[in-house]
Amino acid sequence: MHHLSLPAPAYGQRRFTTLERDSLTPARHFPPREGQEMDPLSAARYGMMAAGRRFDASAERVARSGDSEGAKDIDIGGEVVEQVEAKHQFSASAQLISVADDMWRALISAQEQTQRR
Question: Cα-flanking dihedrals φ and ψ of residue 72, to 5°?
Answer without folding.
Answer: -80, -15
